[in-house]
Amino acid sequence: MTHVGDRPDWVERLSAGVASVDEVPFLTPPPGGVEGLRHAAVLSLFGDGPDGPDVLLMQRSADMRSHAGQPSFPGGRIDPTDDGPIGAAKREAHEETGLDPAGVEVLGLLPELWIPPSGNIVTPVVAWWRTPSEVSAVSPAEVDTVSRVPVADLVDPANRLTVRHPIGLESPAFRVADMLVWGFTAGVLDWLLTLTGWSVPWDRNIVEPVPLPGRAR
After folding, report:
1. What are the tens digits of pLDDT across the range 17-48?
2. Which residues of 132-168 are buried (b: 16+ CB within 10 A; e: fewer)?
């Protein structure tokens, strides 16, 4: 693996890709603006794992009121005591997975994205896990499992598919680490993989229904 300074070359590509983004072509904020909507942040954390670059994902508890059982990035609501999206993303990731925020180097923020089902405006905080720490599902009420998913698995065409919502909307998805990653998280992952030059062609004609609550996952 080549390095630029003390960072792997892929970290530099990811950082440059995030810096180049003015807007994301999906989940754009509503025409009426974001005032009065709940604001949240997620940590899109990439590190060097045993199988190359990877990303930290977790599967939410099936008992949660919102996004039950759905894979996601660590994250949650931005509290008044947080230092904006970055502070919220690090705090929530620590609370949910036990990671040490001191080992996280923020590369940049993606534009705010709107999740209509929950009414949240979410800022993805893209970061490099400079000094990885042990992680686990330290908050069982919120998290079932925590996984470091290799980028090689995410870009493998055999693990890519499209999911279709009952209202007809389609979006990319990934079948990795015993999870079907879809929705907001899959959309952000798909975009970041493209920005970094990792993405490879895959069969977009493989379509499955969205695993809605009550439907087998």
Report:
1. 999 998 877 777 777 766 778 899 999 999 99
2. beebebeeeebbbebbbbbbebbbeeebbbbbeeeee
| Angle of helix 9-19 versus helix 183-195 axis, rounded to 10 | 110
Distance CA 63, CA 178 (A): 19
Tens of pLDDT, residues 130-186: 999 999 999 888 899 999 999 999 999 999 999 998 877 889 999 999 999 999 999
Confidence of residue 59 (pLDDT cuts 50, 70, 90): very high
pTM, whole model, 2 decimals?
A: 0.91
**Residue 146: CA atoms inside 13 Å, Cβ hemisphere, count?**
21
Q: How far is CA 108 from CA 19, 29, 173, 188, in A?
A: 7, 19, 24, 14
Domains of the chain, each with CATH number or no CATH: 3-150 (3.90.79.10)
Q: Which amino acid is at 21?
A: V
d(CA 170, CA 162): 7
Distance of CA 160 to the CA centre of its chain: 16
- Please calculate the CA angle 62-40-212 and round it to the nearest 5 degrees: 30
Joined tokens for residue 11: 């970290």
Residue 102 CA to its chain's centroid (Å): 20
DSSP state of 102: G
Q: Give the other-Cβ count within 10 Å of 126's Cβ.
A: 25
Q: Is the dihedral of CA 79, 85, 91, 97 positive or negative?
A: positive
